[in-house]
Amino acid sequence: MTPTSWLGCSTCGTDSRYNAMALTKPNQQLRRDLKAIAFNLEQSCIDLGKLAEKLSDADAIALMGLVGTLYEEADRLVGYAEEVKNGQIKRATE
Asked: Which pLDDT belongs to residue 94?
């Protein structure tokens, strides 16, 4: 059994262990930060959704529009984290 057959991507055959191990510590931290911020945004969206249930229809609609925008931003951050993992984005050395 090859590593890609049990851990790799079924679409492209890459092994995610090797990409993560190739990241420098600053890039690993950048990826973790991006994913953590995206997670926090998504949790805030859930909380705002619960709040919207208690508002009038007009206010709830406005708030849910904001929530949709925040979800899109969280998705962008997750995308950036994936680009860091793939080496497309790198933290500059100081």
From this structure: 55
